[in-house]
Specification:
CATH topology of the largest domain: Rossmann fold
Strand order of the largest sheet: 4-3-5-6
Structural class: alpha/beta
Number of strands: 14
Bound molecules: 1,3-dihydroxyacetonephosphate, iron/sulfur cluster
Number of helices: 15
Order of helices and strands: EEHEHEHEHEHHEHEHEHEHEHEHEHEHH
Largest sheet: 4 strands, parallel
Distance between the termini: 46 Å
């Protein structure tokens, strides 16, 4: 029997199981929908019912009538699905799949910042815990962040948490002054401006497509900045033949499908000795763990009901803005 370590648990898989076939069968038997982020391994994206960016997956979670949501992504994404669906079972293949942005912003810290700026509206990036969402007025994702900021009345100052890079980019895009929480993404902060310049010199025709979680010097070099879904759409619709892609490498799977005749070049991290453009949290999910969580309907996401109700308001406020 194959043994699989999931956080502190250890589970075994029956010998000879065809994981692809078993996952399809279990999805039907459990009335489950499988949602996967573009940063998941190709095999996981290929067995998913919907693949998308954070906003598309939150929207899919909000409208599903399945009884079980299997979230192939990270904890805050599955938690958002549970905030929207308290009566459904929501499972995450590996419950330790976190996010450096969510980890950087504890709710007590945000409460203390709010106490120092009591007149500010709080906009939080969806990459945060349910407790932080509960302290927030409106949630945003990288797809709709500028729209969300513009929905706040001009005379209302804003606290933006937890991504300082997205926050700085939004200040430029919207002209709004904001108090920024100082979190960052461990993946996007590793892209190197110096090495990107070298790569651009070697591929002068290539367009640079970057996620707004990248640091400012990288964003300044980008021809297009957007969410994962927006990056894919941009490459698909562009007449350019070559793209340098500054985001997590899992996106290349969908990009190759949608742009089969274009050249996609991953942006370089500072060092070649790491797989730094792979999210260590996203990559904790595997096909084996996906099978096990559909088989056993665990690990489940559970949220304290008082926190869930407070977290629901800013998530719904975001969904209402589209
Ligand atoms: P999007 O899905 O909004 O592009 O964000 C990427 C990301 O880092 C998710 O954790
Ligand atoms: Fe979090 Fe960055 Fe991983 Fe996205 S890529 S889940 S922001 S650590």
């Amino acid at each position: 029997m194959d043994r699989v370590e999931i956080g502190s648990a250890s589970k075994s898989i029956e010998p000879g199981v065809d994981l692809f076939e078993a996952i399809e069968r279990l999805k039907r038997e459990r009335n489950a929908v499988l949602l996967a982020h573009y940063y998941q391994d190709p095999d996981i994206q290929d067995v998913a019912d919907a693949v998308g960016d954070s906003l598309q997956l939150a929207q899919a979670a909000a409208r599903t009538d399945a009884e079980v949501i299997v979230f192939a992504g990270v904890h805050f994404m599955a938690e958002t699905a549970k905030i929207l669906n308290p009566h459904k079972v929501v499972v995450l293949p590996d419950p330790t799949a976190g996010c450096s942005l969510a980890d950087a912003c504890p709710a007590e810290g945000l409460r203390a910042l709010k106490a120092r700026h009591p007149d500010h509206a709080v906009v939080s990036y969806i990459n945060c815990s349910a407790e932080v969402k509960a302290e927030t007025d409106v949630i945003c994702t990288s797809s709709n962040a500028a729209r969300v900021i513009r929905s706040i009345p001009e005379d209302r100052p804003i606290i933006f948490a937890p991504d300082r890079n997205l926050g700085r980019w939004l200040i430029q895009q919207t002209g709004r002054d904001m108090v920024l929480w100082s979190g960052s993404c461990v993946v996007h902060e590793t892209f190197s401006e110096r090495r990107l310049r070298d790569l651009m010199a070697r591929h002068p025709e290539a367009l640079v497509l970057a996620h707004p979680e990248c640091e400012a010097p990288v964003l300044r070099l980008a021809h297009f900045v957007g969410s994962t879904a927006a990056i894919i759409r941009h490459a698909e619709g562009s007449a350019a033949r070559q793209f340098i892609v500054a985001t997590e490498s899992g996106i290349l799977h969908e990009m190759k499908k949608r742009c089969p005749d274009k050249e996609l070049i991953p942006a370089p991290p500072e060092s070649d000795s790491c797989a730094c453009n792979e999210c260590p949290h996203m990559k904790k999910n595997t096909l084996e763990k996906l099978y096990l969580c559909l088989r056993d309907l665990e690990p489940r996401i559970e949220i304290d009901e008082a926190i869930r109700l407070r977290a629901l308001r800013p998530v719904e406020a975001m969904l209402a803005l589209g």
